[in-house]
Write a structure and sequence with these properties.
7 helices; two-stranded antiparallel sheet; disordered C terminus; mainly alpha; about 180 residues; two-stranded antiparallel ribbon; 4 strands
């Protein structure tokens, strides 16, 4: 294969990755009114018992302030509730509502779940090779220094955390099929 063809293949592959992430994010926003971080928080709360926000934030690798903002939105939509502990009234836990459970049953899994499942199926040397290549790509794109949460989602990085590419009422900002 000629160098020109290799360059084209690299750029096409990168574009496919970006579009797959963008399409998944926009589908999640349009069909379910959720961002990937919101879905992740909702899933984490559903899978844990009476955990405070700081535990949830550690679990999803987002700052406590970011998770608090996400919880506020999910609570306004009736998908999560804050409940005070009956043992220690100072403690507040997150609990998923029935509406939240229903939404989780319908919503697609976060894109990274499928990726991680397939990644874990690779041999260890292949996993290391893939990590090295992706780190090299990030370096080549001048993005290695950008702090990012382990989420496959489109959005802006603000103060080291993912800021979803949606307006406050969670409407996607535009079509995903633009080349």
């Amino acid at each position: 294969m000629q160098a020109n063809n290799l360059e084209t293949e690299v750029l096409v592959s990168l574009r496919r990755i970006v579009r797959a992430i963008d399409q998944h994010s926009n589908r999640l926003g349009k069909e379910f009114g959720l961002t990937t971080p919101q879905l992740l928080v909702l899933q984490t709360v559903a899978n844990t018992k009476e955990q405070p926000i700081r535990v949830i934030s550690a679990e999803v690798n987002l700052s406590q302030a970011t998770v608090t903002s996400i919880v506020d939105r999910l609570e306004r939509r009736g998908l999560l509730e804050r409940q005070r502990s009956v043992v220690d009234r100072r403690k507040v836990f997150l609990v998923i509502t029935d509406a939240g459970k229903d939404l989780l049953l319908k919503a697609p899994k976060p894109l990274q779940e499928n990726f991680l499942h397939r990644f874990e199926g690779l041999r260890e040397w292949e996993q290391h090779q893939l990590v090295c290549v992706l780190q090299q790509v990030a370096e080549m794109m001048g993005a290695r220094h950008i702090d990012a949460a382990p989420l496959l989602d489109t959005g802006e990085i603000t103060r080291g955390y993912l800021t979803p590419k949606t307006t406050p009422d969670l409407e996607p900002t535009g079509p995903t099929d633009n080349p």
